[in-house]
Amino acid sequence: MLNSLDSEDQLKQIYMETILLVERLHRRFLDVIKTELDRLHIDDVNNVQTLILYNISSEQLTVGELTNRGYYLGSNVSYNVKKLVENDYLVQEKSPHDKRSTRVRLSEKGLALCGKIDELYLRHIEELKNGEPNEDALADTNASLHALERFWTDYINRVFR
Questions:
Q1: Considering the entire predicted model, what is its pTM?
Q2: Which domains, from first to last, does the chain contain?
């Protein structure tokens, strides 16, 4: 019985560390984006807004679609979209099919910033080719994170049936 208790405690410790690490990695990645914005002397957009822009890419989306697709996880997406429109990173237009709905797309300024972020990602890829974590380690991490996502999704679906 002692071994199973130790094993259970160990699994709980690993599980809690994983949850905290995922959260910490997200915050650290936002720091990476902020550092790049600072390096480029861009101060009219923040790191979260930059990721919203990057995820929109060449698409035209509604604000609701930003959230539904997982491009934005915060509660103030409307505020960030408003700021991105005010600072000329996004163009907001009424939907041609539903006048109550508005769609957003990247402006030239938004596309240029996404190009800079893409350059950052390419620099990271070059560094990752010869270092740690390598491609295999990242693929293994992604597989584990996808499995954890499925576990949590299945849990939510079981609880709310």
A1: 0.84
A2: 2-130 (1.10.10.10)
